[in-house]
From TrEMBL:
Signal keyword on record: yes
Keyword match Signal: yes
Signal peptide extent: 1-24
Key words, A-Z: Signal
Organism taxonomic ancestry: Bacteria, Pseudomonadati, Spirochaetota, Spirochaetia, Leptospirales
InterPro entries linked to this entry: Cell_wall_metabolism_enzyme, Dup_hybrid_motif
Name this protein carries in UniProt: M23 family metallopeptidase
Species name: Leptospira bandrabouensis
PANTHER family in alphabetical order: M23 FAMILY METALLOPEPTIDASE, PEPTIDASE-RELATED
Alphabetized GO MF terms: metalloendopeptidase activity
Length: 603
């Protein structure tokens, strides 16, 4: 359904005052005065308002294809307002400010400044040389470094957190603007968002229902029950809630956050949200937009609230109150996800206003004392007293057999004991629930807690400690918990050839050769310390947490005395397993052409 500009304005004014307020806070800078931040049309690899571990992603990430050193361009006319550096977070960054429209763009994770502003790069070097080399934040005199739209301001890098990419934000006096709000930064795609599932919960529905979505035609999805039956209608009464899971492809393989969502009843919109603007306050309140117990960053899974959630997290919101409709009345519902270009995907089904008499309880009842829950056998206790609990429902803790779980336990990790499913009914929580599991003996060195995340369909790490009679753990997600024994060794392998040269030639250090070796483990997890030697001698290395690899830096001056270098390494996991020895014979031929007289010589 499309609205004229006037109809859309009236709709937002009547039904979505918060959305209208957000729109009014966006500076009215002419669209043609905002340009793309790179000299090539890079796909977006991370979008605005994506869920993160502690807050929301308040910008857009642009691909740099694993290479540092691409030019970054001024998105509008203005001047450099601030430069900063830290070893974490934004890394090396700068703020470009337009005083006419009072809007700034922030570029983060840079390799260096410069470009057309070479004096800015000299200032960076001087500040690091004379000040604290671990970081700085420097306000600049207005107009000291004035630029026009399209001016080269610096080079892309991977400083701070994350591998090579450019992070871009747009900020106003009131909050943060989605970069995709500006047409020149729109990713010109014709692919609508993907809908994965619909989570339906009701005051008078015995148990929540998770429906799987399958695309029928472009942008149109059917819903199916867990038994594979087509879902077309359901009898319900009271307040109901919808959470829709999905993502958006934007000219890349990355599963991105959507731009907006809508809910309509009988063709009339009753809920709409745009991720075009967030106040500074809302940037830390991800629970307003997502089911945080079912959503994930890696891999990305977004369960969107199709309703307004309370900011204080005390009461659960709702999508629709059927008490306002006549008994037996049939309602046609459409739930949609939208991207920034205007592509839309929808699911359709009917709700009949009457009590559902057929739903049965498939969960076992658990013992509850306040916000503490225990399994029927009393082996597991979950305490949510120190979390913020929303909703009047309860936690569901059910013992299941290995044959009943929707996953296969990895080879080499035999199951020790029981499996428990953790789910909720009309309840969610923010923070870490505290758990205790009494297995009746001290776990061995190889035994650990493992968690299968239901929303992403993968095993994820879970914070836990071994105790005299079992485990204590912290819980933030829903899924299956179990004890497995790690009988598999870790692995260590070289990265691809591209990863050995992560800088473009113009920013590459020609004095050193960097080698990356990836660590991996299917069990308890690898240790970041390895045994590494070159030609039989212990050699230093650095662990790169973003690549999950060790980096070995070798002076190219060694080429003068050694035609080959023999690198040997062994990796370890937390269960005491050791990898097979890894050997890499490194040829130094070809390095001589790149050697410079200023490079250090190894004695």
């Amino acid at each position: 359904m499309r609205f004229s500009p006037l109809c859309r304005h009236i709709f937002l004014l009547c039904l979505c005052p918060l959305a209208l307020l957000s729109q009014s806070k966006i500076p009215e800078i002419p669209p043609n005065e905002v340009g793309f931040p790179l000299p090539y049309y890079s796909p977006v690899s991370g979008t605005f308002a994506e869920i993160r571990n502690h807050n929301l992603h308040l910008g857009s990430d642009f691909k740099s294809y694993g290479l540092n050193g691409h030019s970054i361009l001024a998105t509008f006319d203005g001047y450099i307002e601030e430069i900063s550096y830290s070893k974490t977070g934004y890394g090396l960054s700068l703020n470009l400010y337009n005083p006419k429209y009072k809007v700034k763009s922030k570029y983060a994770h840079l390799h260096s400044f410069g470009g057309s502003l070479y004096d800015l790069e000299l200032l960076r070097r001087a500040v690091l040389l004379m000040g604290d080399p671990t970081g700085f934040q420097l306000k600049l005199t207005p107009g000291m470094f004035s630029v026009k739209k399209g001016t080269s301001l610096g080079k892309t890098g991977e400083s701070g957190s994350g591998i090579s990419h450019l992070h871009l934000e747009f900020r106003s006096e009131k909050g943060i603007i989605n970069p995709l709000y500006f047409p020149e930064i729109h990713q010109k795609d014709t692919t609508p968002p993907t809908i994965l599932s619909l989570y339906l919960e009701g005051d008078h529905l015995e148990n929540p229902i998770l429906l799987t979505a399958k695309e029928k035609t472009k942008g149109k999805y059917d819903l199916y029950t867990d038994s594979g039956e087509l879902f077309e209608s359901i009898p319900l009464t009271g307040k109901i809630r919808f959470r829709m899971s999905g993502y958006d492809f934007i000219r890349s393989r990355n599963k991105n956050n959507v731009y907006g969502m809508d809910l309509s009843v009988n063709g009339s919109p009753i809920f709409s949200r745009n991720f075009d603007f967030l106040s500074y306050e809302d940037g830390s309140k991800k629970h307003q937009f997502y089911d945080i117990n079912r959503s994930s960053l890696a891999p990305p899974v977004y369960f969107y609230h199709m309703y307004e959630q309370s900011k204080n997290f005390k009461e659960e919101g709702f999508s629709l109150d059927l008490e306002g409709y006549k008994p037996k009345e049939t309602l046609q519902l459409e739930l949609s996800l939208r991207d920034a270009t205007g592509n839309k995907s929808s699911v359709f089904f009917k709700v009949v206003h009457e009590k559902n008499e057929t739903e049965t309880n498939r969960f076992s009842k658990n013992k509850r004392t306040g916000n503490k829950y225990s399994s029927n056998d009393g082996k597991i206790i979950l305490d949510f007293s120190k979390t913020e609990v929303s909703g009047e429902g309860s936690l569901l803790l059910t013992e299941v057999s290995e044959k009943e779980v929707p996953f296969k336990i990895p080879t080499g990790l035999p199951l020790k004991g029981k499996i428990y499913q953790i789910d909720t009914k009309k309840m969610s929580w923010k923070g870490e629930g505290l758990g205790e599991w009494n297995i009746g003996y001290m776990p061995t060195n190889k035994e650990s807690l493992y968690f299968y995340d239901s929303s992403i369909g993968k095993f994820q790490s879970i914070t836990h400690k071994k105790k005299a009679n079992g485990f204590s753990f912290r819980l933030t997600k829903l899924g299956y918990i179990m004890v497995l024994s790690d009988e598999t060794p870790p692995t260590i392998f070289p990265m691809t050839s591209l990863a050995r040269y992560i800088e473009l030639p113009e920013v590459r250090n020609h004095c050193f050769e960097d080698r990356y070796y990836v660590l991996g483990d299917t069990g308890s997890g690898f240790r970041t310390s390895v045994d590494l030697t070159i030609d039989g001698q212990t050699y230093p290395y650095e662990y790169d947490p973003d690549r999950r690899a060790i980096r070995v830096t070798i002076p190219k001056s060694l080429q003068k005395e050694r035609p080959y270098l023999l690198l040997e390494a062994k990796a370890f996991d937390f269960a005491g397993n050791v990898s097979e020895p890894f050997v890499d014979l490194i040829s130094t031929s070809g390095w001589s052409e790149e050697l410079q007289a200023s490079c250090p010589v190894m004695e």
